[in-house]
Structure prediction request, 497 residues.
Amino acid sequence: MYKIREIKYSSSSVSIQVYKIENRKRKIIRHIGTAANEQEKFNLLHLANDFIKKISQQFVLFEDEQSNKVINLSQSEFIGVYYGFFYELLHKLFIKIGFDKHKSNLLLDLVVIRLFEPASKLRSIETLEQYFGIKHHRQSYYESAKKWRELKEKTEKIAVSFAKKHYDFTYDLLFYDVTTLYFETFDEDELRKNGFSKDNKSQQPQILIALMVSKEGFPVAYEVFSGNTFEGHTFIPVIKKFIDKNNVKNFTVVADAAMISAENVEQLNDNHINYIVGARLGNITKELFTKIDEMLIRKDGENIRIPTDTGFLICSFSSLRYRKDKYEMEKQIQKAMQIIENPSKLRKTKFTKSNKENNLEINQNLIDKTKKLLGIKGYYTNLKESQASNTLIIEHYHQLYKIEQNFRIAKSDLQTRPIFHFKEEPIKLHILICFMALIASKHIELETGKSIKKFIQECKKITDARILNKITNKEIQLRVKLSPEIIEIIEKLKLLT
Prediction:
């Protein structure tokens, strides 16, 4: 009788073996593999049980055109456990998206491993063989990588084309935002610069990434800037480049308040680009402030539209926002009073001001103004009410979270940062690979309703045992049965063959 043996190591890994007792001694029949976690252990135990089932009887290992031969597994060599299903599924998806137009298996394989287990490029080449049995040579990477940077615009074209086909993308509404990616170094150069870090890594050089996504949250374009670039200065160049490249006629861009400036608004209007951006009500004129205070009813859902020299200011009220704003204001007032009461720690804060004696005191005027703005959110737009109602403007702006979702996927699941490259060419290549992985991730999420993390977890449950038949010298594959969850995923991605 065949049995399964688990051997635990100090490293917390577990080795799975199949054995039987002969003459009162344990005889190892097959070493199935070593698991580093519970999921891998589960997969190996499944394979061990399957192995025992097969070895306990005669069965057909392969069939060819000439004859059927019955071979015992004891006459075969176990090669290892791989994740062929995930690899095959992703390559089918890449073909559907259009990435096969790049005509580089190595590039696509690096995107696969970026999704499966992010690592350095050279480490990725190793893990491609470890997890999928796919062999690439390091030299191939060095020789090919120089050409891949040229694929940025082609990749964006593929993304736009796919968005048009699968999401009815018409350029009418796009969301824009930027983020920063830091490096594991303190050395700067022309691209890697210290700047305002969204990752709280102010001491480390960074680059700035601008991203554009559709109303569904599907990524269609990106740009790379030096780390000290002011985010507002990226806004117009990226948008104009996208419009010119795609010959766009009707265009509305949605962005947060950081992108707005008098110069940017002027250029948007001059280029007939519609915009919806957040408004910083603390910086508005006294005249606008008075109009908001007098016109806006403090009830949930109430909103007003006020004409300005460059467009319209839309304001809305929310009781939930009111409670949040009130809490923050009271906290800031308390902090201001503590600073005033403790002159030894003299420093300015939001609700303090310097008096004639150069001492700090409470800025009551600012407190009064802030109280009148509690619960109010502002939005700037050049869209007329006949083009988009106040409610629709507000709704569009609140969809900016979709681009934040992309950044979270890129930074956590795809581990876009920290970046370990030091030259501009490999840095931009890294961003290209991550952008391609982001496109695939977002499509999977939109179509299946599952996060990329959950998707990979489900796919990892489907493993392949690869076995070499010593008689025919042919390799066969024993795949774990597809779960109902996986079948549902394949159906939703429309990848059934």
